[in-house]
Structure to design on (478 residues):
């Protein structure tokens, strides 16, 4: 069982109280690396979600000045950094990623609280004179109201921080629902928010099976916005459930990121960038390269460079400082990766690094490099969400663009070339919300990030991410 000073209570957090499910039911939380039982968390449903929504609605009625809200955000930022090692340990225990990555996640998450703490002046009313009629207009950014935040298990802290910091900054009342596989990090974050002075009811955490909680959030008239990060299928369900009440949504859904390497690129730099981009969180991220597309004349050389690097990765328990790659989140994740790899091999791809996971190998999947990957393979059509580098080839710039855009998704894309004009041309033709030019970097607090096409809509990060949690109201005075 987990013991942590950041988890003095293991429960949901509703109206400022730590609580258990009305039914008394619980859900177990396991360490994906060892299968160890870490904790039991409440298995809540509609009743508790309604109580949380009502608490958030009462909190929103108590208007709080921007300076005070900024103080909460700074406080959470400071506490996260103060407790970064312990917070990172909780992330690694329930999520599996290497501890050094968890520390980076805590620092990244803290950055959203810092950034939004500095940005609330963007909400100041804007005055517009109207010379012809002599009227005066004032544009306000009012808080959206009660918002539901639903987050996934791959970055249990960062995905919540990206939503929570702007929601609290904008003056909203929050009902958060973490992934049932990784609720402990969210519990610890609520504990820190309480210590940072966020008042009772302003932030509520409901834990349990997703469907009844999600349905209640979508149906309750007090909830004005659902911000969700997760799969496209669940995004679609939420959109359907929000349609009757015409509720606003911000959806950050799946990706199928292309990583384009042109023959004129710095191949060593591209290979290093791909390693960092691909293997973070064992390849379970929505921005990681899913389709590596390399110009024909350098495809073999690039594959060798990747094989050499991937062959050195050490797989193990995230708490072991030697570990580069932790486990996948569960057996279902391993089975999906195996299915993708087998499908690619059946259709003619070659596996130049890696092998089938051992029988009884639990949740670990060996880092793998495939070559000869083509668009009809599952590894090209769906997000594999595992440590597999799937390398295909292209001839011309036009073909590269057509292959890259040949997906219903549009979250992140990466281009490696020394030709600056080509890079700009590609950026304007790639239908992706985030484009990395000669870098595999993902999002940052300062910049808006989000998808195009079926990767969703709405932005997180940047001032745009703050305005997502606001309603624009226009006043006109005679
Ligand atoms: P992933 O593939 O990353 O597990 P999911 O979309 O299944 O993505 O999960 C992301 C979040 O969505 C989790 O918090 C999960 O509990 C939640 N979720 C899953 N199903 C539903 C649903 N029907 N309604 C609301 N939330 C859901």
């Amino acid at each position: 069982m987990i013991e942590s000073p950041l988890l003095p209570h293991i429960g949901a957090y509703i109206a400022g109280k730590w609580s258990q499910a009305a039914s008394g039911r619980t859900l177990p939380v396991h360490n994906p690396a060892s299968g160890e039982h870490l904790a039991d968390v409440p298995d809540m449903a509609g009743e508790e979600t309604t109580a949380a929504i009502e608490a958030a609605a009462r909190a929103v009625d108590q208007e709080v000045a921007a300076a005070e809200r900024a103080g909460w955000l700074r406080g959470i930022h400071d506490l996260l950094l103060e407790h970064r090692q312990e917070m990172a340990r909780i992330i690694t225990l329930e999520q599996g990623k290497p501890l050094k990555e968890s520390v980076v996640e805590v620092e990244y998450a803290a950055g959203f609280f810092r950034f939004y703490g500095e940005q609330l002046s963007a909400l100041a009313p804007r005055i517009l004179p109207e010379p012809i009629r002599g009227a005066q207009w004032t544009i306000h950014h009012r808080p959206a109201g009660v918002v539901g935040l639903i987050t996934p298990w791959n970055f249990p802290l960062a995905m919540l921080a990206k939503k929570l910091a702007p929601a609290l900054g904008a003056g909203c009342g929050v009902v958060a629902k973490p992934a049932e596989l990784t609720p402990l990090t969210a519990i610890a974050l609520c504990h820190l928010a309480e210590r940072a002075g966020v008042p009772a009811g302003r932030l509520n955490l409901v834990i349990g099976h997703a469907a009844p909680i999600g349905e209640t959030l979508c149906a309750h008239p007090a909830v004005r916005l659902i911000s969700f990060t997760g799969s496209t299928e669940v995004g679609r369900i939420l959109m359907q459930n929000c349609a009757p009440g015409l509720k606003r949504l911000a959806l950050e859904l799946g990706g199928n990121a292309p990583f384009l390497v042109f023959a004129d690129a710095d191949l060593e730099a591209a290979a290093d960038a791909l390693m960092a981009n691909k293997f973070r969180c064992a390849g379970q991220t929505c921005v990681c390269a899913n389709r590596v597309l390399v110009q024909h004349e350098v495809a073999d050389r690039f594959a060798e460079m990747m094989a050499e690097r991937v062959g050195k990765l050490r797989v193990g328990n995230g708490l072991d400082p030697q570990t580069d790659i932790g486990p996948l989140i569960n057996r279902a994740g391993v089975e999906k990766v195996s299915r993708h790899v087998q499908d690619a091999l059946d259709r003619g791809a070659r596996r130049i690094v890696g092998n089938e996971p051992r029988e009884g190998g639990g949740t670990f999947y060996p880092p793998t490099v495939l070559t000869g990957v083509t668009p009809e393979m599952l590894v090209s059509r769906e997000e594999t969400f595992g440590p597999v580098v799937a390398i295909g080839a292209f001839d011309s710039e036009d073909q590269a663009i057509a292959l890259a855009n040949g997906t219903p998704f549009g979250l992140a894309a990466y281009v490696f070339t020394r030709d600056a004009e080509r890079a700009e041309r590609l950026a304007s033709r790639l239908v992706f919300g985030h484009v990395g030019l000669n870098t595999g970097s993902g999002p940052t607090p300062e910049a808006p990030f989000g998808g195009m096409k079926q990767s969703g809509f709405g932005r997180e990060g940047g001032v745009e991410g703050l305005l997502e949690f606001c309603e624009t109201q226009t006043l006109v005075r005679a």
